[in-house]
Records
---
Amino acid sequence: MIKRLSHSLAQKIVNSGAGRNHSTAAIAFGLELIFTYFFGTAILMVISVLCRQPLAWLVFILGFAPLRTTAGGFHAKSQLSCFAVSSGIFLLSMIVSFLWSWTSTIYLLVCSVTLILVLLLSPVEAVNKKLTQEQRSKNRTRSLIISVINIVITLLFCVMNVASALINLYFAGIAMAAVSLIIAKIKPY
């Protein structure tokens, strides 16, 4: 559905003359990425609202997305399975975050293990989208910086002795990004 919509809209853009410097395929691919991102985010927002935690989606994405986009990780084979996996890990993260008690020690453990995994594995490339050496180097550096920033944030929470379900969800997002790295290394694509 998203692929058809993207292609149809790209064709209209090219026919109107607005996309004359780009191919229909390139415009369709860009639109597909945009639609997929918005649809996936909308699913997480709906789940958050249904669980009576309207900001949960945002907190999770703040923990998950920076590492996932720079360090790499598991890629589903289709958009439908991507939405299902994303929704599943978000629901699991919500359950773990809101039903169990976390401490700043758990935050520190999550971020320390994540930093080690990033050091060992990052970046994990998608099978169908290889990175250049320059991209690989940039993504590795960025994922290491993000991991160190997460450790600093954790240390601040440790010093302030702060813990809450939403903070748990942030760190659950980080943990899920780390799990994605492991899964991608074990079973690429």
---
Amino acid sequence: MDNNNSSRHQKHSIIFRLYCASAYIIIPVFLLTGILLFQLTSSEFFTHILKNSDFIETYINAEKWDIEEKIKAEIEDKVHLEKFRSIFESAKAEYEKKSEEFRKLNKTEEYEKLKKEKDEISGLPYQRAPSSVKSPEDFKAYKETELARINSRLDEIEKYREDNEEEIEKLEDAVEDLEDVFEDAGDELDDRKEDANDIVLSHENSLKGQILSDLKKITPVLTEELNKRLINTQVKEEAGKMISFFTSYAEQKEVGNVSADRLDSFVRGNANDVKVRIPEITLNLWVEDEINGVKQKRHLLSEVFVDRIREIDGLKNRNMFIKLFKFSESGLAEKLGRSYLNEMGMSIKNGVIKIKSKQLEGRDAVIIQTAMLSFTAGNYLKYILPAIALIMFFTLFLNRKGTYRRIKNILIYPSVLIIILYLALIGFSNIFVYFPGGIKSPVAKIYIGSVSNTAAVYFAAPGIALFLLLFVIGLFFRRKARAEKEQLTEKKEQIEIKEQKEQLSFSDSE
């Protein structure tokens, strides 16, 4: 009977250890997945990213970058600054190399060091004599000895220079020639820099320079309007529509947005011949506004933006900006749209931006179908997974022995690892933008980089907050574990002392 109880207890102990080991992975992974699913199934997550990715400011920075690149190209075309900088650096390196050769051959450093040492010894007063010198007579002898040693070494170097005079003078002449070349290259480079500065200044005083100065003033104003009238309304609704599409697989299959032609699949011999129709996305730049108490549709760029520009003080090119936005065909969004949106399957016409409904087939459709199944399940898993993690966490308390130690390990170490990964994600969020052969457009590159950074911060912030909290809780349990260990050690010592006393008492009675 005892053997059965012992075996049952051992089996229970092994199962519980495996349960604890699995908790190291399940609790952090399920919490992490739950956070991710909550974010990806929330339109707020996407609109917050767009609102804080500074679209208009990004355009300004991209325009500034474009202007700077054109100025650099003009400088190189007219001044050849990089060419003369390269000539200067080459002349400098050759001069320094030859100078070092001459100084070594001429023993310049050693000779100059000895001269300084001689001057120091000659002017050294008795009050500063070394501790080994005990009297004025000893000091005089010390100075004579040191000066004799130095003079002897100086004579040797001068004799060496006389013996190698021809070679030294030849190398010295070469150094002087290179020094002239180096100085001429430096003078020429300074002249070229002045010419380059003149070109830069001419652009700074140009209309484009003033435009950039004005854009810095209008950016926060226009961004506020963009967020309020487009991103918080239409973009949020369209994001919600796409989230609803991806998280309702059964409904989409029922209405025919996901289908499989079984006869076509049989003919092609492909069991996964799925077809998925992606819904259309529409953003209308004709937004609702109120004028003199009357609600009406007004164009965001040519009317709303123009009115706000008229209200901004201190603009140098107000009329130019009004003309820029007055006609929607020349506005900021449509300019960018015609340049870049077509490449992404988007179009813009009469103030309406569209991503047309598209039917995907084959491999692309299977990928979208898999994503839809995953997000549909994720709509429930975002609640279930954190609940399982919490249940596992609280069931660890069922076995009282070593509870604090187990919990602090489960909370501290995975939390530290996940926080580090989140911080790494933020740090390297837009590195892909700079890969060779990647995005060519400076506007798209800067904006996508800005979106990537913002998305990484918004993605990481809730996770860092949660796992930082778990880390702090883990530190609390670590302190509890230490106290528990000290109590067990103290209790064990008391038992040992008691047993020793009982043994002594038993010996005395015998």
---
Amino acid sequence: MLEELIRDIWQTILKYSTQYYVLILLLLLAYLVMAFRYRIDYLVMKDDVVWRRWYKAVFLCPSCHRRLRPDGHPPNYLCPKCGNSFTFGDKAVKEWTKHRPLMTKGEFIRYLTLLVFLAIGALWIFTSGVLHN
């Protein structure tokens, strides 16, 4: 009884994963773009000295002494252990927020990539006949 249930669930998963393989691949790629957003931004923004200084800065959490990671936009940092947000940085990093562009080059590349993934997925759905099955 339990083996049949597991086998039926496995067959259903295999059926849908082979039928919608393009969408699963695009979903995985979109997840990777969002999960590694700061590393992708660093590859694009490494010529911006202030952004690089914010990304590479080493500050420790005052309560648990773990290394803070960049969060959001400069000069914000987040502690991965206790979840507290902090603002550190030199004057150039703090001034960057006042003169920050509407969208950095890294954000533009990421959003454009996600938009391309969405367009490919929509195009695949509407041209493959998946909706008619």
